[in-house]
Amino acid sequence: MTKKVAIVAVAQMGHDEIFNLNIREITYQVVKSLLAQAGISREEIGTIITSSSDYWQGISCSNSYYYDAVGGYLKNSSKTEEDGAFAFLYGYLRVMSGHFDTAVVHAVTKMSEVPESSTLTNMYADPFFQRPIGIDDLSAAALQANLYMARYGITEEQAAKVVVKNLGNARNNPYAFKKEKVTVEDVLKSERLAYPIKALDCAPESDATCAILLASEEKAKQLTEMPVWIKGVGWSVDDYFLGDRNFLNGGLKRAAQKAYAMAGISKPLGEINVAEICEPYSYQELLWYEQLGFCREGEGGKFIDKGMTSLDGKLPVNPSGGVLAANPYVARGLIRIAEAALQVMGEAENRQVPDVKTALAHSTHGLAGQHHSVVILGK
Amino acid sequence: MSRAVAIVGFGQTKQGRRDDVSYPELVYGAVKAAFEDAQIAPEDIDAVVSGSMPAPMEGVNAPHLYLSDALAAFGKPSMRVATCGSTGMSIAQMAYYHVASGLFDVVLAVGHEKMMENDPQGTMSTVAEPFFQRPFLAGAAGIFSMQSNMYAHRYNISEERVRQAAAVISVNHHENALDNPFAHIRMKITVEDVLNSKVVSYPVRLMDICPASDGAAAVIFVAGEKAKRFPQKPAWVKGLYYAGDEAFFGDSDKVVWESAIIAARESYRMAGIQNPRKEIDVAEVYNPFTFQELIFYECFGFCGPGEACRLVEEGVVLRGGELPCDPSGGVLCSNPIGATGLIRVGEAALQVTGRADKRQVPGAKTALAHAMGGMDQLNGIMIISSIS
Amino acid sequence: MDQTEVKFLEQVIYLPYRWAMGPVFTRFFEEFKKKKIMGTRCPKCNRVLVPARMFCPRCFVDTKEWVQVSDKGVIRTWALITFKYSGQPIQPPYITGLIDLDGAHVGFLHCIGGTDLTDLENVKKTIKIGGRVQARWREKPQGNILDIEYFEPIQK
Q1: Would you say B384 and B369 are in contact if contact means Cβ atoms under 8 Å apart?
Q2: Domain for residue C44, yes or no?
Q3: ipTM of the complex
Q4: Domains of chain B with CATH codes
Q5: What is the DSSP string of C75-120?
Q6: Which domains, from first to last, does chain A contain?
Q7: pLDDT of residue C20
Q8: Which pLDDT does position B118 carry in this prediction?
Q9: Burial level of B3, CB count in 10 A (0-12/13-18/19+)?
Q10: Which residues of B touch A72 (CB under 8 A)?
Q11: What is the pLDDT of residue B100?
Q12: Residues 231..290 of A with a Cβ closer than 8 Å to C: which?
């Protein structure tokens, strides 16, 4: 077993670069770029873990389609479904075991090629009880948002501030899909989709891919002068039936607690310098602040009111623009990790937050965030 | 040196047409059975891993979320893997790495399938990419038939001889399944029955082929140092590996099948096995099609290239032979695809700990478990032994 | 990349399904057809789970005790759906909501209606978190979840 694992390189490709390419070509290019950056050949790679979704690809056993494109020819490569962060976590476990000293972890999603997100997330629901009601990602988020507002007095304006912040940040991110200056007014005036959620409160659907190279301690030091150490990880799932769930308190808190315990973090607000979190709906970012322990329960709205999560705030959240700026459903979780790593490396270019020692990356998937993962990275 | 990992529990459902339960209830049954076997409760589990065929097979996206209750996953880390036929082995390997990483001590691995709720071949045809291969590959039967023809031609083996060997395998495994209360197909057949059964896609006939089955299985993996807390004798994972070919079916040789050869070689290396024929006492080989099993014998080093028919003719791989294969009846007699690879692992664990009841191979200490997936693309192997 | 136009392949995939309900859901819908909403009680945590289940997801034990719950309850949360997507089972506008039925410990996902859904202000006035609702059953129940058309606010 190895004691420590590091990220030694990351590579991404955004929507504009890959919209016209097929998944094999995209996968090949991002992995090629990653290996070139790290100065390592395909032969030297120990293992490869990739994440994709059959529904979000229209090809079943999705990884078999690009198995060789990800560098897996005659290699020990496996797959995790539905969340790019899983690829990272599984790759991490494999390197920790001591069996492999390097792992390429990868995720790809092309929302442009498949039915709408609502159609595919309606398919998350069982055929007997929840699917016929038309529940999907958006309507489930609306249920959660409405409860959140009623319980704590969170306002539509506070949620809108998340959109303004993130889309504004996205202008610094060459990989973002949506980058525009919007105002709170714009958000409030945007088309109502599922009250209280409006069009600009929602993430777009876009294409992207990401690949990250992990290495054991010894190998990492050979490959880079700036290894980004994995300090803590945690992931957790909630009940299946929406009626069984506590929308405002669940898996994210548990996942964060595990990651913080591993990383030795007791005061996230003071000890984390930047966070990349998955916020497919504006309200969810506020709720995730609370569940991550950045602020107290019910205070997510006040937290953003005080500007705490702006680029110049105490704990910048989503300097990349987050999921509101780019939403390749499965890949987005891995991209959060890549962005957090870039922050620690000091290589986040125009979106760099100064003096980052510790970064947090979060991923979620499933209706109203049924599953969450948290990763803590640091120098 | 990495952390030792052992298997201390195994549960499986009756396999076949399971219209009597909904999908979550099917999974619940397997998990409950594994908990009973290991004498544990959900709070003892540190993490859950699960998998099945592509989600379109059952028509619910992200099955690990739909089934999270049945997987006893509430509040726990839960992860899903899906690698077609090799899924069950991928699940086992994922659970192994959860423990071997040092982060988790007790991990529940669950494989599940409810393919009778759909047209399985319809779903399987969506495995092929739509640009080049989907119109042609005709699901599983088409691929394996092509492979069989290649094999016979490569080694200049007469059609009669290969068909005969395949039929003997079929008879042997169906006979074994009669001793397996969980297996789907339990019927006594003769070589004539097999040779005269309907041609599905030449040269493969109906009785050379696995059924489509519903079923679920669960295995408990634990850290070696904790194994003695559990009532059942531990079955140690001594070696494991996995390798895959390219996506295009025509890119690689599927007779001298590199991914299968490498999966075996690296597993043996890790387990310290130098002469598989002698050192392996029993093998649960993934065999949706009898012909393919012949190829696996050669890839796993049980015999030299082109010699697999002889292994059958001399009874080496049959019941009572030197290296009996698939005493459970194998995939050929029971194929809930997402679970099948994991069932191979569970059966191997039962064999080496003397818990395989009527299908026990006497004195078995070291077993090989294997699963194959994709369009003849992916192969994974695990070596399991009662020797720590 | 050269200047040639890149193409896209379009295909619709049809796959037929026939999902087994299992004995518990089958019984649930038989009772539902009689306008009864059934749950099962967990012997360990004592929660009554609706729809009726074979097992409790948190305690992971069999739940064999069947309990009828009321078709009246309290709105836990709701959302007014006004957007469309392919294959959407219900045509917008409709309200989706979680209802805490009297006697159940978990929320029941269904629709809320009985008021003008085209006017958001009206909806916000009439449909409130914490408001009491009751099921409006179909005239001729068929034994599926849409046998309840929607839950409607109880007039005082």
Answers
A1: yes
A2: yes
A3: 0.96
A4: 5-120+212-229 (3.40.47.10)
A5: EEEEEEE----TT-SSPSSEEEEEEEETT-SS-EEEEE-SS-TT-H
A6: 5-115+205-223 (3.40.47.10)
A7: 82
A8: 83
A9: middle
A10: 244
A11: 97
A12: 239-244, 247
